[in-house]
Amino acid sequence: MRELEGDDEACQNTDRILETLERIDGPYAIVFWQASAKKLWFGRDCLGRRSLLWHRPRSGDDSFMLTSVGALISAGGNSEVQSPFFEELPANGIYCLDVGLMVREIGVNPDGVHDDDEDIFASAVTHYPWRPPMLSSDPTSLFPSGDNPLKYLTLPFGRINTTTPSPEDLTSAPATDNLDVIPPISSQMQAAIDGLVDVLSDSVLRRVWDIPRIG
């Protein structure tokens, strides 16, 4: 984010901010304060490899919180409240909270709700989702009707599955209630399983390689 420091014009440009965030390589959880616009940008990498928790305000006197390390806190001191105080931020894009707008709206509606029952916090947050690299010239083909965002971030990899498997690729389970019976696995499926295990093993190894050993 250093390229945005001292560049007031860039900090005012949403596209520049999204382009910069999109170019970050590797695991991350980031919080960026856009002082010129009083906006808070935050998010995680597209695979969710770093932790970032948030607490969304439930009323006008509640506070919005972001943290990388959470604690077991009773929501509002009410043991009957089932929802956790902190929740993992979805790794589905970058979020932007218009703090200036939220503060102004809460000043008018102290209970945190608009006259039409719309949540002030929700209306002040903009979500810029991750999107696969373009597979066609029509961006609307990648989103449900009416759900095509104006701005988004491009994933650093293509779609994992571009086709659905054919019936021949699937192994039918035997007609039995005996859970000890293991269905046959084709050589193609076994190769896919072995490849997945190798990738997961390498991923775990990379994450624990530099952890100091004790004893």
How would you portray this structure in words?
This protein folds into 2 domains: 153 residues, no CATH class; 42 residues, no CATH class. The protein has 215 residues and is of the alpha+beta class. It contains 5 helices and 8 strands, in the order ααββββββααββα. The strands form 2 sheets. Strands 1-2-6-7-8 form a 5-stranded mixed β-sheet. It is 23% helix and 16% strand. The longest helix has 22 residues.
Question: In this structure, how is the largest beta sheet organized?
Answer: 5 strands, mixed
Number of helices: 5
The arrangement of helices and strands along the chain is HHEEEEEEHHEEH
Q: How would you write the strand order of the largest sheet? A: 1-2-6-7-8
Structural class: alpha+beta
> Which percent range describes the beta-strand content?
15-25%
Q: What coarse outline follows from CA principal-axis ratios?
A: elongated
How many distinct beta strands? 8
Helix content: 10-25%
Rg result:
23 Å
* Number of individual domains: 2
Amino- and carboxy-terminal Cα gap: 40 Å
Low-confidence stretches are: 140-146
Key structural traits:
single chain; 215 residues; alpha+beta; 2 domains; three-stranded antiparallel sheet; 5 helices; 16% strand; elongated; Ntn_hydrolases_N; asparagine biosynthesis
Task: Summarize it.
With 215 residues, the protein is an alpha+beta fold. Helices cover 23% and strands 16% of the residues. InterPro entries: Asn_synthetase_domain (IPR051857), Ntn_hydrolases_N (IPR029055).
